[in-house]
Amino acid sequence: MINNNNYWSVNEFAKYANTTRHTLMHYDKIGLISPVSRGHGNHYRYYHSTQLTHINLIRSLHRLGMTLNEIKDMKDTRTPQDADAILKRQITKIDAKINEWVSARKLLLTIQKTINSALSVDEEAISIQYLPAEAIILGGLNDYSRGRNDYDALSSFYHEMIKQYPGLDISYPVWGRYSERRIKGGDWKWPDRYYFYNPEGYDQRPAALYAVGYTRCGYSQGKELYKRLTKYIDEHDYEICGDAYEEYPLNEVSIADDNNYLMRVLITVKEKAPEERRRRAYNRRKTG
Fold first, then answer.
1. pTM above the 0.85 mark?
2. Quick one: CATH architecture of 116-279?
């Protein structure tokens, strides 16, 4: 029997290496890693504690996509130069996978943020709120000439973004921006521009005072909300002074009925001049 504490039976080694007896037997069979000694008389196979580093490297490389044959080739023909080249390739793969997962996490956090922003809102209320700046990636002016519609414009937006920003993740929510001129003119059929709601965006929805309202509808079906908002703005002594942003915090990701998405509109506003507020207050008292 081997009594040295540095030698472990197959079951013990499997336990310390966080693997299984079956896996060790298979690795031994294909010549990947084998016991270093057999017990006298009982022929039990024993591994040495120094082999833990080897087995951990094998399992790490295998989890990262190297086949067992590739790992064995590395073992059988190893030189410092070959080992270095193989490990460099694996590190490159790991870095790519890390970047992929980091990007995926940012996307999911952004979508989660938009959903959470709508869970406790009063969908019937309109309010005036100061909102901080938000990062976005803004597209160019939409072209609605020659019978083009909002879906044509959206397709062009995606093509433009891919061309302008190679490698851009286009999975982020896409929402619409309307100009001050169009909102004041009551023209809110389709957005002037689309934008990605992206936390690493190169543009901004600016920090400003906004009139904020909600409605349940499908895409581009919220004209009644725009009417309510513009009426509310005027009646509460505010005036439109900038762009409007049309968002869908609850959309196909979280709502099954595509006519029941939650639409949020933010219109940039400011208080009317004191003289105008006094005049309107006087007229209200006079007619009241």
1. no
2. Alpha-Beta Barrel (3.20)
Quick one: tokens of 250? 């609850």
Inform me whether the pLDDT recorded for 264 exceeds 90. yes
Return the number of other C-beta atoms located less than 10 Å from residue 29's C-beta: 9
What CA–CA distance (Å, rounded) separates 228 from 230? 6
pLDDT in tens, 66-84: 889 888 887 777 778 877 8
Per DSSP, the residues of the chain read ----TTEEEHHHHHHHTTS-HHHHHHHHHTTSS--SEE-TTT--EEEETTHHHHHHHHHHHHHTT--HHHHHHHHHT--HHHHHHHHHHHHHHHHHHHHHHHHHHHHHHHHHHHHHTTTT--TT--EEEEE--EEEEE-------TT--HHHHHHHHHHHHHHHSTT--TTS-EEEEE-HHHHHTT--SS-SEEEE--TT-SEEE-SEEEEEEEEEESTT--HHHHHHHHHHHHHTTEEEEEEEEEEEEESTTT-S-TT-EEEEEEEEEEEPPHHHHHHHHHHHHHH-
* Burial category of 176 from C-beta neighbours within 10 Å (exposed 0-12, middle 13-18, buried 19 and up): buried
Q: What is the mean pLDDT of residues 214-227?
A: 95
Domain map of the chain by residue range?
Answer: 7-78, 116-279
Beta bridge partners of 21: none
7-78 carries CATH number 1.10.3720.10: no
